[in-house]
Design goal:
By secondary structure, the protein is an alpha/beta fold. It contains twelve helices and 13 strands. The protein folds into two domains: 2-161, 3-Layer(aba) Sandwich (Rossmann fold), CATH 3.40.50.720; 176-197 and 227-276 and 296-339, UDP-galactose 4-epimerase, domain 1, CATH 3.90.25.10. Strand 1 (2-6), helix 1 and strand 2 (26-31) form a beta-alpha-beta unit. Helix 1 packs across helix 6.
């Protein structure tokens, strides 16, 4: 294929590009050119600013397929389509499970209700507006999907990943666990019975290219593993790979709440499997799995993520965990002491 990737230098993008090249495709990237990234041979790098409606570098070009990694706001879909829609055969939007209106229902599929946005200026908003108010993220992604379906009717796929993990993720969301468990000693962990879902970035990347190859259409949830997994199984698997001698000390929801320890941020990946979040880590990916979504084992993801982490400059490693996700060593020691 002649494959256009909008974005292509971020967390997903590099894996996408390498996989597409391995499949023999001709790859063109279009982005602002501001992110430091490895320049790969046989890749055409084009520069333009979508926020300024600058698509001049793409004029006169045709592509068999386009994968849109970068879109946060619906006007980006509309403005790109004004130039690209007549000149591409298939369009894939990397969306998100955050489009859904509720996480309360276990096993909800792609037909579940999505968020809505009633702002009159929705098509005037920029990514900066979203970053300033993350409550806009899900509703605007839903509008991006709607616009993609209008612009590429009958030749559009919308991929809705959940938590994307693996080598290259600088957020420390998933990375926290293999790195922290590898350090050893007593490790504070959340309730073991709660469910967990995630997907390796390389599986998202590979399948987005396969979707384009097969010209699949419609919405697909991208969450693994293929069968239900608990936080206990998740953590035990990581421990078995990175440090079997680490001691995992389970805290109850009640203790964590009393100590003001937050799910997802203080203890990354974990979301309580009850109440309004009962379905957050129990969303159905049956449609994508039936269509061939690959899911590599957690043991591989954990080992590869730790190896990637250890390849980073030492100054980055000393900043673990990152500011937004994970417990500091001092906070974890205090909580372990409080548990007795």
């Amino acid at each position: 294929m002649r494959l256009l990737i909008l974005g292509g230098t971020g967390f997903i993008g590099e894996h996408q590009v390498r996989y597409a090249l391995e499949r023999g495709h001709t790859v063109t990237l279009f982005n602002r050119g501001q992110r430091a990234a490895t320049r790969l041979p046989k890749v055409d790098y084009l520069v333009g600013d979508r926020d300024q409606n600058d698509y001049a570098a793409l004029r006169g070009r045709t592509f068999d397929a386009c994968i849109d990694n970068a879109t946060l706001v619906p006007r980006w879909v509309r403005s790109a389509a004004a130039l690209l829609a007549p000149h591409i055969g298939h369009y894939t939007l990397i969306s998100t499970v955050s489009v859904y209106a509720s996480d309360a229902e276990p096993d909800a599929d792609e037909g579940a209700a999505r968020q809505t946005c009633d702002r009159a200026d929705a098509f005037d908003l920029s990514p900066a507006d979203v970053r300033a108010d993350m409550s806009l993220y899900g509703p605007l992604k839903a509008l991006c999907e709607d616009e993609a379906m209008r612009q590429y009717d009958g030749r559009c796929a919308m991929l809705r990943p959940g938590l994307i993990v693996g080598p290259g993720d600088e957020s420390d969301r998933f990375t926290y666990w293999p790195v922290r468990i590898a350090q050893g000693g007593e490790v504070l962990v959340p309730p073991r019975a709660d469910p967990v879902q995630f997907i390796d970035v390389r599986d998202v990347a590979a399948w987005s290219v396969q979707v384009a190859e097969q010209r699949l259409t419609g919405a697909f949830n991208l969450k693994g593993p293929a069968s239900a997994m608990t936080m206990g199984e998740f953590l035990d698997t990581i421990r078995s790979v990175v440090n079997p001698d680490a001691i995992l000390r389970e805290a109850s929801r009640e203790f964590l709440a009393a100590q003001q320890v937050n799910a997802w941020t203080d203890l990354p990946v974990w979301i309580p499997g009850v109440g309004e979040t009962a379905g957050a880590h129990r969303r159905s990916s049956a449609r994508a799995l039936a269509a061939g979504l690959p899911l590599r084992p957690l043991s591989v993801t954990a080992a590869d993520t730790l190896a990637w982490w250890r390849s980073l400059p030492i100054e980055r490693q000393t900043k673990f965990p990152a500011k937004q996700f994970g417990l500091s060593a001092a906070r974890e020691r205090a909580l372990l002491a409080a548990m007795g």
